[in-house]
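__Record contents__

***
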Amino acid sequence: MSHKHPTSLRRARLAPLAAAAALIAATSGVALAQSNGTLPVTGPTTNQTSNGVVNAQNNSNAQYTTFPGNGVVNGNGVDALAIGNQHRLDTGAAAALTINNQLPAQPTVDIAQQVNSTVSSITSGTVGVNAANVVGNHDGDTASVSNNEASAAAIGSTAVGTMQITGTAVDMNTPATATVTQGQAATGAVTAITTLNQVGIRLNQTGGANPANAMDNLRLSVSGNKIDASAQANTTQAGIQVQGSSVNVGADASSSVDQVAEGNVFGISSVGNLLGIRVQGTPNQPMTDSTLSVSGNQVQASAGGNQQTSTLQITSSGDVVQAPNTVLGTTATQANSGVVIASGSATTLGIDNQKPGSANNSYSVAGNSVSAQADGNSGSNRTAVAAAGSISGAALETTNSQTLSSPVVTAGANVGSLGVQTLDSTNDTLSVSGNLVQAQAQGSSASNQTRAGASNIADSQATTSNTQLNMGGAVSASASVARIGSSSTSLSGTSLTVSGNQLSSEATAASATNDAQLGADNAVTQSSALVTNTQGHATGEVQASTGSNLVGATTTSASNATLVVSGNQFNANAASQKASNLARVNATNGVTDAAAAVINQQGHGSGDVSATVAGLTSLSPSPDPVPMLIGLRANTASGSSLTVSGNVGGSDAIINQADNQVALSGSRIDGNSAAYLFNVQAVQSGNASALTKVNLGVEGTSNLTPVTTRAGGHELVVSGNQFSANASQNQATNALDIQATSTLSAAGTQPNLLGNLQLSAGDTTATTEMQILSGRSVVTDPSGNTTITGNQASSLARANVANNQLTVTAGTLASDQAVLLGNVQGNSGAVASTASLQMQGTAANRLDGNITTTGNQALAVAAGNTSLNSVQVGAGTALNSGSAVGLLNAQTNSGNVVATASLNADAFTRGSSLNLSGNTASATAVGNNADNVVNVSALPGQQMASAVLTSTQVNSGNVSAVVSGSYSASGVPSTSGINVSGNRSSAVAIGNRATSSMTLGVQ
């Protein structure tokens, strides 16, 4: 709306109309925009409460039930949307309140929303071709199901509470506030469900085995379809944007969000029967010479308690001046105590050909995805000032607080069959590639930024503060596929490639990315950037699991087939608390009287953190999952070849994890400048455990027929596969970097301090088990060669891990620098690392042909405390006597530390030739481990700074390393060519290990 009043009388007459318009806009949830006036204005105030049930349902089909010569089901939408409260922008409006070239007198946007009853959305139906009675000749027919969408969305409350102030010279002399408050009661459950029976093509041929009922040269495609369910209790966008040729800030300006979610939130998306193509009709003609493709389809589900974005941005083409004792800030507070569940699933994703005798077909299943994301609290906050001229007196603050007490935050992405199913496969080409199954669950997550950029910055502060508390929520993520690849009764002359598929799960109780940055093209004076991050986990387990029973092919018999399983990835990552913190002050021409600091604190009270990559079946006593088979499950393999290469996977379980950086840089750094980095991490109880179990190669189809008979020159290659497990209580990377391209001097003494403290009391376990051929493969033909090379099973268990880097450099003179790095670590929990690589582990596994087993590794490392501490100080000319350099390392371990590695390559009972060389089994266990480096350099004769390096280590726990290795050619005929050489087994156990070096010299 626009008001231009030439006289005061006209203003008086129109004022009631303007007030009425504002009232109507506010109560209807449509924001009011005001501009180009001369009177002070205030923005809309809205209060919304939803007490009744809100429900949207859509049960629709977009399909045809016959199979015409050319059929297309394209671009259809089946959607349902339910919202409890909505406050949105009017069409074309840039913000809820817009002020152009007008004095802003206490401009205010205030939105309050409350949901007290259920909000639900349900979408169901069928999309595609569903032909139950296909008769007649179908030679060269086509069908396409593409770019259709089915979705359900449910939102408790959604709001846009933004303000935009523009002008030439903007004077903000009264407070400006944009506030959004949202609440969800325990009785206000939010549910979104999309459940479809079918998305794709189903052809059921009837009419008997009549030669006229041909199915040849078909072209069937299912692509780009999207099935989505999204449920969110509270979501909002709040903020203030100010833009002018100059901006004077004489009062506070704030963007704030307060959200509370107490009810349950469910987002469920599923395709129950078929997502792809199914061809049926057992008594009829086979399908031949056809091309079937399923690509780029998505099933996704999301569920969230609180979600918000809050931004305060001031942009000036000139200067920005802020009055003393005023603050520009964003503030967000979120609390969630409801259950949050997201589930995405598909029973069959791909191609299912149930017609016998099919041959010469091309099948492709590529680029499809099934995903689920669950978030208790999530937020993005930013306070920023950008000026082409100068910034003076800016006090910028970004504050975020999140609390989770939800019983459960969980995400599950599950697929029954991903790939191609056929009764018979003869001379077919099958490809299953680039598909993704992914689950991510986060208790609380935040991105917080405070930034200022100008030509000059003076008397300014940028402060970012983040607090996240988990009062008892369990967080879990699961990604599972029963089978990835191919299933058939027989494979004859067929080529199958299973490559580039990814299974991923990630569960994190709290994560944050925080930064505070000041950057100037010229100079920064008397200013600071500070980041404080506090994360606390009272109790609650965090679990991530990724699994499949088979990646590759399962068949009774494979003859003259080429099978390749390569480049697939399997990951599970679990963490209690993660943080990335950055404080930086940078000025091209110099920094004076400036400081940058990061303070990170992470505390974990109790609750186990675990990550697992394995098969889906768990043995008794549970949990003891079976290995994931990557390769071929068959009773016989004759004249075929199988390559299993380049597959990678890992499980990572880390309780506290931090990446901290502090940086000061400029042509010169002087005055009372300083840089600080302090990292504190503590685990009172709670175990970190990572488990990876895989089986590579071939095995029988069941426990009743466990042996695969390889004959007719069946070739097997298992190479370059790498699987790992990594577990830690505390991990930190700390980097403090001071760089002056010319001088680095101080009015007194410039402190550059880096401190790291880590304490752990829980147990830490990492286990990787890799089987190759699983001891159940038999070769009865001397031409069946077996190559096993370059595979690695590794495990890494370390209670406390720190990488500390402190660097101070000056292009010319450095004076009065106090450079100190301190690292303190203490562990009282047990640490165990196990890596096992078993190749042909029993006498029942008889291999003929040429046998090559080279360059395989089983590596296990266990440590109580480990640190890399580096102090690098360099001056282009002189480093004066007012400077001091120090490194202190103190480590104490009282927990038992055990590393176990085993590699068995034996029980070769037959073979034309045997090359068993270059294999390695290594176990390393250390109570305390430290690498300490101090390098101080200047021109000859100009080094006058003092330097000290002190390292103290105390270990009272038992430390053991155990290796078992067997490299045996027992039973191989003496007439064969046998090479058993260069294999290595190594066990190293050390209570305390330290390497310390100090170099004082010239550049």
Q: What stands out?
A: The helical segments are 8-27. The two ends are 68 Å apart (CA to CA).
